[in-house]
Amino acid sequence: MVSYVGYRPDTLTITNPSAEVSVTLRTETTLQEVVVQASTTQIDRMSPIQTELLTTRTLAKAACCNLSESFETNASVSVSYSDAVTGAKQIQMLGLSGNYVQTNIENIPTIRGLASTFGLNYVPGTWISTIDIGKGVGSVVNGYEGMAGQINVELQKPDARERVYANAYVNSFGRVEGNLNLSKPLNDRWSVGVLSHASTLRNQIDQNSDGFMDLPLYTQYNGIMRAKYSSERFMTQFGVKALYEDRLGGQASQSVMPGAPRYTFTNVTRRYEWFSKTAKLYPEQPYKGLGFILNAVHHDQNSRFGFTPYDGRQQSLYGNLIYQSIIGNTNHSFKAGISYLLDDYRERYRDTLMTRTESVPGVFGEYTYKYLEKFTMVAGARADFHNLFGTQLTPRLHLKYDLNENVSLRASMGRGFRVPNALAENYGYLVSSRTVFFTGKLRPEISWNYGISLTNEFNLFGEKASLILDYYRTDFQNQLVVDLEHPGELNFYNLSGKSFSNSFQAELNYEPVKRLEFKLAYRLFDVRQSMGAPFGESVLLPRMMVSRDRVLFNAGYALPYDKWKVDVTVQWNGPRRIPTMQRDNSHDYTTHQNTHDYSYRNMIWENTPGFYNVNAQVSRAFRDWEVYLGGENLTGFRQLNPIVAPQNPFGREFDAAGRAWGPITGRMIYAGFRYKLKY
């Protein structure tokens, strides 16, 4: 007889006393299945940094084929194509480009340097488990480069519940994609995992009949092999990543007359990484820990824009040693450590060779004070000893105060520092006949960011709702100015004057009935930059290609157990500035000499029209399967003429990026499936 309090006793007849017997008792009251779920978008209530959490449920609202497509239902981050040829995507946050957002993969700085061009495409959506979006300056523990925010992406782990996760996707443009995640526990401590991806697009699309492919043809192979060891006192993860991608864009083959030169864009990228994360744990002192992160990268890419070559190689080494503990009690805690970053760049554009080696050891410390679970202060500072630009000090402060259990007020301020990679971060502008000019020795970018936010969770008509208000300002002490105002030129120079970004956002989340969620958000940007220093002027102008207003509405409904899910997202993108300076024949574009002065003060520019973008998806879940059907840009809106002078791509007027501001392609329909086999 086998019995236990709260369970029904059971009686078994044992015929072989030496056999092992396993007995499962039933509870006195057998419960039906219990489902615990949260809303698709959440604010981290514990963190003093304004942090938004995107879960796999959020990512499943759209196709989410890679990281660049993971923000379609998010109001804080917007994504757009950087030009009309390469297919490179860039994000914007707080009115600034993604170069000012530190994007980490499992707390390892990853999308930076030469990877800033196509790096968002290198993280498949099915690999992602969560995305944390932090606004303003982040923790000094993660480095000095996060000037406008931090994004941390957590990938599926080797000990994940899904032993097998398979995904396939196809869309109406001809893009085909397959993903396979495998995880296997070897024993109680060891587990191994594989994340794999392959995708391709081989269909030439030219919807506006300008002779240029609207999307580049490409093939990508991408994979990670990793292992994890976990015990009571020690944990480690390590693995390797490998990626190969080739792209072909430019004029469609059928649009070129026989014997005429064809303008093509090509890019081949090979990227390899090795990473490890090790932690020493103290079970009897859970507040104490010692961790070490190590990452090595080799990134090599070879590009050609028509007859113009651009080749880049980056080799990086990153290490971060972190120790955390308390001072007296858990109201006073701290983190301290040392870091090291080595970047070796070798770029060749046309006949110009550009090399740079950055060696940056650093030390940091961060103190956290908590008072009665109502007030939290995080004060941190780091000192980095840059071999090229000297010692850089980075102070940062975060405050959080809970007015009551439903209302939280946050504030932050801090300094950011980064060394720009002018060509890699403005890759799309090279698809043009512009002549590149560097005026003076480019200095590091330095900024101060200040922010305040209010989060209020309340009941609206008897149902739960939340309201998030935030305001952030970024002031630059120095900035790389990317000046396209002169036709035929791409000018890089240091800031002389002011440059700032003001960002305000209001977001309302509401669940009027069970399983029906609404999100309504409005975002306002005021972004300005002084321009014209090399030409004897310093005029404060609105930043080019930044929409002043953006409105996002998302509605999602799910039947019980998520058998059917329907999601609709509507975005309105407000007008943005594009320059219309006229070419002056008295200007010598080969020597960069003006015989006629341009006036930034009297410059003529135009604003693009605002436009709507509608995306929708419906999915049906079975026991282990889920199928989905969706569409993007369902209104079919697209910019009709994103390329200037496409009929003469080797002429001096050709430009595929300077006036590309809207969707290049029209309506797109997609379908796919997900298969999960859990433990």
From TrEMBL:
Pfam families registered for this protein in UniProt: Plug, TonB_dep_Rec_b-barrel
Domain TonB-dependent receptor plug: 47-149
Superkingdom per UniProt: Bacteria
Annotated compartments: Cell outer membrane
SUPFAM superfamilies, per the entry: Porins (SSF56935)
InterPro entries linked to this entry: Beta-barrel_TonB (IPR000531), Beta-barrel_TonB_sf (IPR036942), Plug_dom (IPR012910), Plug_dom_sf (IPR037066), TonB-dep_rcpt-like (IPR039426)
Stretches assigned to the TonB-dependent receptor-like beta-barrel domain: 233-634
Family matches, as PANTHER family: HEMOGLOBIN AND HEMOGLOBIN-HAPTOGLOBIN-BINDING PROTEIN 1-RELATED, TONB-DEPENDENT OUTER MEMBRANE RECEPTOR
Entry similarity comment: Belongs to the TonB-dependent receptor family.
Protein name as annotated: TonB-dependent receptor
Provenance organism: Nibrella viscosa
